[in-house]
RNA sequence: GCGGGUGUGGCGGAAUUGGCAGACGCACCAGACUUAGGAUCUGGCGGGUAACCGUGGGGGUUCGAGUCCCUUCACCCGCACCA
């Protein structure tokens, strides 16, 4: 009988659908397990074999957990708000709702053919009003908690997408989506106070079973650094200037001060003589793209303001400069410059002939003179030229300087973060409307909860205006409304939320996806969550994954849920490449699963996706290698069909040993996420079974089929029946390993001379060292090798190796 | 510049605590069956005639190193003037 994958797969897919096999039930007696994929954006291009990789992994894992006695929640949905649908609307005039629905239908069809055990009864779509009503509800909580606020500030702006961007969406100074260099634009924006959560977002990383790489990326992104804020008197002004520094110990080394060009004190500090140079520099800086400002060629530029600050300990006057190497949105937007011990300050000082003053030296060493320094000295030594602090270590001085200045009321210890608040508004159409109104009398007023959702209206033109307003601003019927508070005339907010909004909490909604009364039933969410295994690409390391953690903590603080981390374990699958490049429609190097499923069946493709290489590593698509996997499945099918025709009653000792070793290997390798080697184990086992002269028994066949079920579920179901079982193989249990079968009666000892293999001898497992030694010396090849040599040493590793060291 | 990772046959990749390098698959070669083979099955397959040599290069520790240490090269990823 030939392996007819197509028929088999169609048969079992409808069986699963009819029996509701893949539903996750709260009423189950089994312990829960939540295995989640990062849900896709339903693009018009459909899925390629690269997308399959993660979905296959999570499905194999889900099915394996099922066989291990868990009730598995394995849902799927759509991250359906986003720019491509909107761009299609602009270009082709297809309404985003229509285009999105079509793409979803296509994606769903493709995913169904994959044969994954998705619980489709829980399907969600972030762009549906039933869903985004609750995204808006969460926004209202953020607003109420003071975590959502409006602020006028220069933000990242993509001139091509014509929208503001979050810091996280700027990659190498360019828009993450379209690659256009990002500029700064002053805008009145909705922001989320994610920085309030910086400390917790950082600390709680410790408890997560995530790849170290991702944890490190998040930690770096949050970028915590301890330091102090010092306040400097300004010469001739009543105001003071605050700077942030991590090196208060170098206070005596300060030779000048620098403000960011955007700093509010710049205009007050600038003297009439410097007026023109300063304002030119400021204008020039603001016009520079982000890309130009952070160019690799970091030649320092800047202008003297004419103003001076007063050194708090020496009274010395310190010239105040402005320079674009100081960033307005980090620390206080101003620094004290210590050129001797900070590389950036050093470069700036050399550029503009500012003095360099060394205040740290290595103990007992004559350091090069300040004029001859080639670079800043950032080593931890002891203090010099620092008055009362001379001789202290860097650590001691850091502490003492801050304590002393604190006593004078001009310093306080602070912590700086690289993390910025989250720019949460987009000037685009296809997103969740931000549910607030602007009332002339009451100011910003949140929409009442019972009036949610604020529906996205139909528009005629989807083009972003580019003026900083979304297309919604052009719709009078949408904009004009009444104030929920005073009932007077008011205007709706016309910005929408960023694409990340919906994905910040979708994993919660899967626990109770159709709740029309509430966000979700808390009991259900606390039952299924947190997600036990989250599988997706590493590209979301600091975007989605950080935002989702933030939302989870906010909802925890709001007492909406009872846990504060959403994803216990994270796995990042590698990309699939073709000709060395990531598969993408635009590069034209995608391999589509359709023809492969048609030709070999989905079980073959699933298994090949696993076999192609370690799951966390990028893998090059090999169109030939899939044949080998298909041959293997066909061979397995034939073996089982033949064996079923004449089954042996009792399992033989040798089959038992093979079986237990196999189960042990497969289990260990699945648990270790080494799926490529799981497939190898199958190939070896099936080959070994084929070589058996005796007929196979029920136990052997059951075990083989159960173990195969997570990988090739359709074939496994078919074979489950062929070998005489009832129902679904997924109601069976994963086989146990009996250790007693794993030990052999005899062992092969490798005989080495000076570490080189000379012979192998087989001895009974319990043989004494002395007997082994006799056998070793009896070996003819050993005899030859040691003939005229002296034995210096004998090393015996029981059951493994006997090494003779000779001279 | 800082941080992290990876280097093993023609190719993808295997190798508990340091203990038989190259499992498994692809490609290739030979054979069987066949009118035929781009189907299937069997066998071979790191290099070298051999002694031996082989896990990016060099050094070290050890009876023994792909694995541990030092050093160096190449490639990849993340961050990038964060005071």
TrEMBL record:
ATP binds at residue 585. It catalyses: tRNA(Leu) + L-leucine + ATP = L-leucyl-tRNA(Leu) + AMP + diphosphate. It is found in: Cytoplasm. It comes from the Bacteria. SUPFAM superfamilies: Anticodon-binding domain of a subclass of class I aminoacyl-tRNA synthetases, Nucleotidylyl transferase, ValRS/IleRS/LeuRS editing domain. The keyword Aminoacyl-tRNA synthetase applies. Belongs to the class-I aminoacyl-tRNA synthetase family. This is Leucine--tRNA ligase. The lineage of its organism: Bacteria, Bacillati, Bacillota, Bacilli, Bacillales.
